[in-house]
Write a structure and sequence with these properties.
Chains A, B: It catalyses: (R)-lactate + 2 Fe(III)-[cytochrome c] = 2 Fe(II)-[cytochrome c] + pyruvate + 2 H(+); (R)-malate + A = oxaloacetate + AH2. The structure is a homodimer. By secondary structure, the first copy, chain A, is an alpha+beta fold. Among the domains of chain A are: 131 residues, Alpha-Beta Plaits; 121 residues, Uridine Diphospho-n-acetylenolpyruvylglucosamine Reductase, domain 2; 96 residues, Alpha-Beta Plaits, CATH 3.30.70.2740. In chain A, 31% of the residues lie in helices and 18% in strands. Chain A is built from 19 helices and 18 strands. In chain A, the strands form 3 sheets. Chain A has a 9-stranded antiparallel beta sheet, sandwiched between helices. Chain A has a 5-stranded antiparallel beta sheet with strand order 7-8-11-9-10. A 4-stranded mixed beta sheet of chain A has the order 3-4-6-5, covered by helices on one side. In chain A, strand 7 and strand 8 form a beta hairpin. In chain A, helix 11 packs antiparallel against helix 13. Chain A is globular, with a radius of gyration of 24 Å. Chain A starts with 17 loop residues before the first helix and ends in a 12-residue tail after the last helix. The interface between A and B is large, with 92 and 92 residues.
Chain lengths: 556, 556
């Protein structure tokens, strides 16, 4: 095989050199890069698994089922008032006609209320008849105080991209949309501190920062729709966490409104401020249950000009851990992603798409490494030296290195394309879990054994389960356990739950690594949190929202 | 001048090449590296400035003044019970004889109580007659519950290295020392997650991690004495913040005990956990006022094998900002410190020590840059290219690069030696402030102008003020404003306060960037926090500590 200037590994160790990589990828027209095997799943991507997991797969095109029908045990809390004409008149007075979307109460507005009532996955749908779009923090304060005084329940809504039904109403809660609060307030190029309204779209913020040679320290698939206030309210994780850390560290300040109308003016532009309890932290991940975030101040790092991506095969999960440790050692400050995919997930991607994979042959595990740094030559040299080391020491069996931006995207597609491809056979039971890294993959094996033992897994149509696969952000010990199925099956569900949650609890893991609680995981919090912690959380909820008007029926 | 292989700058631009650096430093015996001009300040380093600033300088060797005498407006709260024999018997029963230090109630213990009653700066001294040293979280729970039930006030104490009097009693509060809870509980080499008792000394933790090729993401001058629980309780900033971020991002879990004995079991070993309010954040920087941290879980990065340090002179504060921005650009992921020193501070260091400074000639400003990364050659190349750029574009006027570990320490001494040297003339008024980076140094000029205008600053003994200088962590926008004086002077104090605090407030800065509030800054919180924020903080305090027994007379 040909050697390469960028990955000059000893020939005896290389099963697949960059030459092969180029043959695989460069010879193919660009149009074929897109995944093709999952159009059904794309058009109707998700269906609710009522037991807390998410089923991916074709859903009927007709109107989305009301959440109140999917969750018949949820009853509208009678303490909340019904919206009257008088209420609506008050809101119109505060906000003006253009900022209220009203359905069934008045016919002033032609705007359709349905997009605010249901989520993008078409899994949750509420009965709200009123959407308010305040244009300033003061307006949020006025309407929230009025709602609190009049016992009107509300749902704060950002880009409405929640994966757990956190941003849509269940009954007739008033939707408070932040979409009209979308000003970038300031950016300091010396300190990298960015201040903006909560309703700024993540991608808009990131594009603005790109022009200033900075990045938003968070990246998500939903970046084109999600809002930065929503990102902070849900403590979004995403793709840059390994490198830049969590929002609890990066968010420097928050402006928020409490149910009683109090404006929490904690929009600090300081990196250090040790003057009292860090109250703003409660709003990070609070999912709009104690107040509405209206503005954020966040520390943004410099944009890295050099990005490199490698993809490799490994013989065991132990080798993956060794590779991760070695990557942290040798790539240290430039490591920006370390993703794990088991061989089964890659085989199903291959089956679903028919697409040739980057490596020849099959391996039990694959990892994707991304580096980003300020000097391309240095980073390539580090990555090459890392790859030589892990191949010489047999940690890694085979590997390829992307040579250009297109190849970078194609390697990333092997990881990012998984969720879509797994829907190819019908549906998917999905779990977003945090586990101690050493035992993370054991869960996948245990679930597979369990389902196999009772005869649920097989290669032909008589078996409901296609396979049990695992992938995720290895760098963050965040596992996505996925069970692609040919059809929904009560027995599969009985085998999965509460088994998976109990398993996670046994390892002190988390049943929601990055997606939050919303409505989907509300009932399962005790698998991740002790009674004491739940009690402390309820105290916080009662402290800030004694009337319980904020995002009811969800969270804890 | 000689050119160098490490800093090959065009000759015309170099005023001081690495050759000069070597001449300055290498020819001198190692023993001379130590600062010598401030022995008086060393033996009695600090005296309380009652108006909130800190006076450095010789203090009488006699017993330390009681805090209750320095702050006569503080009265013992009569709601707290006096310690009785019965109380002591209960504690002895729970802890055993060896874990209680008793003074004036019983003579069982020979251990001296004074070190627990006063701080290392000899500024604060309490009247406590009882020190308890629990050995487990359960013991902490039992004694705290008892104290709460019996209205006995307590002061949690870690390494007792507070700079604001946060860790010593004021009156007869019971000291709860964490020193016997010093076990390292676990370390995961793959994830870098370290779990330990609160009483583990920071240096012990860091040495343990060094053996595993990791570092604790926090470094402090007091590392040999301070405890990691205390670091978290005070949200310590320190030297690694620019690179690794704050404890709000790095601390993954906390085990703490509330006044009512509740054990907050939030010692997560997960990097991601989005299941409810992040309650533990309230304990980070809570200064022991809502509970006692007994264990922490923290994410530790890989140790960087390559460290480089450069020191350079600049003509204006604007150039310092340009250099910082350029350093973030070019050094990005390897930049681990960017420190600012004004020319006046360096001149006083030179006057106090007689020591030759790294650069010839004088410059209005100096900066120190440290890089740390995984590859020494790469880092040197980046730093060299950065230095070439900033010298060619006249951002930096002159610079030197350390060639070995000794030189690294000597360059750092130009920054770290400042506080000690400034005490040379008598005392120092000191302020630890966060300010927007663009206007950070304006405060130093404004204070100097103000004191000069009223005739307080001059070169001979008739003037109280020697000079007004500024230095600090430029990377964190953390300014240390220092006013070295020949003697304490009421007029100087009147000119400084509230002027400094009002100036900081006008820029939305913080009156305590990293030292916390303790007793020293309790009265000044409103200069950094609005009435709303103070109200929200008091709510938190009342929620967790309704009896107010935790670290009373301090914080908010």
């Amino acid at each position: 095989m040909a050697s390469s200037s960028r990955l000059a590994l000893p020939l005896r160790r290389i099963k697949c050199s960059p030459g092969t990589f180029q043959r695989n990828f460069r010879a193919r027209p660009a149009a074929q890069v897109r995944w093709t095997g999952s159009t059904a799943a794309t058009s109707e991507p998700h269906q609710q698994d009522r037991k807390g997991g998410i089923k991916d797969g074709p859903a009927p095109a007709k109107a989305i089922k009301f959440t109140s029908d999917s969750y018949p045990e949820l009853k509208r809390d009678s303490k909340f008032a019904q919206i009257t004409e008088e209420h609506v008149n008050f809101f119109k007075e505060v906000l003006g006609l253009q900022s209220a979307v009203i359905d069934g109460v008045s016919t002033d507005a032609a705007d359709d209320i349905e997009p605010f009532n249901s989520d993008w996955m078409r899994k949750y749908r509420g009965h709200s008849k009123l959407v308010l779009k305040p244009g300033s923090t003061e307006e949020v304060s006025k309407i929230l105080k009025y709602c609190n005084d009049n016992m009107l329940a509300v749902v704060p809504q950002g880009g409405n991209t929640s994966l757990v039904g956190g941003s849509v109403p269940v009954f007739d809660e008033i939707v408070i949309s932040l979409q009209q609060m979308n000003n970038i307030r300031s950016f300091d190029e010396v300190s990298g501190i960015f201040v903006a309204d909560a309703g700024v779209i993540l991608e808009v913020a990131d594009n603005f920062l790109a022009e200033k040679n900075h990045i938003f320290p968070l990246d998500l698939g939903a970046k084109g729709s999600c809002q930065i206030g929503g990102n902070v309210a849900t403590n979004a994780g995403g793709l840059r966490l390994l490198r830049y850390g969590s929002l609890h560290g990066n968010v420097l300040g928050i402006e928020a409104v409490l149910p009683d109308g109090t404006i929490v003016d904690d929009l600090s532009k300081l990196r250090k401020n040790n003057t009292g309890y860090d109250v703003k932290q409660l709003f990070i991940g609070g999912e709009g249950t104690i107040g509405i975030i209206t503005g954020i101040s966040i520390l943004c790092p410099q944009r890295s000009p050099a990005i490199n991506v490698a993809y490799f095969g490994l013989e065991s999960y132990e080798k993956c851990q060794e590779a991760f440790q070695e990557a942290k050692n040798q790539l240290s400050e430039i490591l920006s992603a370390f993703e794990l995919m088991d061989g089964r997930s890659q085989r199903l991607v291959n089956k679903a798409t028919g697409k040739k994979m980057p490596l020849e042959g099959e391996h039990p595990f694959y990892c994707l490494i991304e580096t980003s740094g300020s000097n391309s030559d240095h980073d390539s040299e580090k990555l090459q030296s890392f790859l030589e080391h892990v191949m010489e020491t047999s940690v890694v069996s085979d590997g390829v290195l992307a040579q250009d931006q297109t190849q970078i995207q194609e390697l990333w597609a092997c990881r990012e394309g998984i969720p879509e491809c797994l829907g190819h056979w019908g549906g998917v039971y999905k779990y977003d879990l945090s586990l101690p890294i050493s035992s993370m993959y054991d869960l996948v094996n245990d679930v597979r054994d369990r389902l196999t033992k009772v005869g649920l897994v097989g290669n032909d149509e008589s078996y409901p389960v296609v396979d049990v696969v695992g992938y995720g952000h290895m760098g963050d010990a965040n596992l996505h356990l996925n069970v692609p199925t040919r059809r929904y099956d009560k027995e599969v569900e009985r085998q999965l739950e509460p088994f998976v949650y109990e398993w996670v609890k046994g390892k002190n893991g988390s049943i929601s690594a990055e997606h939050g609680l919303g409505i989907a995981k509300k009932s399962f919090i005790r698998y991740s949190r002790s009674d004491t912690m739940v009690k402390l959380m309820k105290q916080i909820k009662n402290l800030y929202d004694p009337n319980g008007i904020m995002n009811p029926y969800k969270y804890i």
